[in-house]
Amino acid sequence: MSTQERVPLVITTAKNGVFFGYGIVPEGPRPESLKLERARMAVYWSEDMRGVVGLAAEGPSATCRISPAAPALTLYEISAVFEPSDDAVQRWESGPWKG
Length: 99
What we know:
The protein is of the alpha+beta class. The protein has helices spanning 52-57, 86-94, and strands at residues 7-13, 18-23, 33-44, 65-66, 70-76, 78-82. The N and C termini lie far apart (39 Å).
């Protein structure tokens, strides 16, 4: 995989934001910012996710609240970058919103 190829990512920020979208995997030290395309935010995730790592491993469940996709956004103060499973990508793309 080219380092410039956009791939699905789950990103957490220092302000506890959790986002999914397509970006370039950062190399080296923690990036100051990261641009995501087709970006979604986890507004709420349910206990069955077992935390943020569950959102990357399994993707959001039907009881989560995932925003619609914005064409692009830039995140700052990145705290973690996850490469989600194929199943997780499909579930993020479905944008579940309980309520």
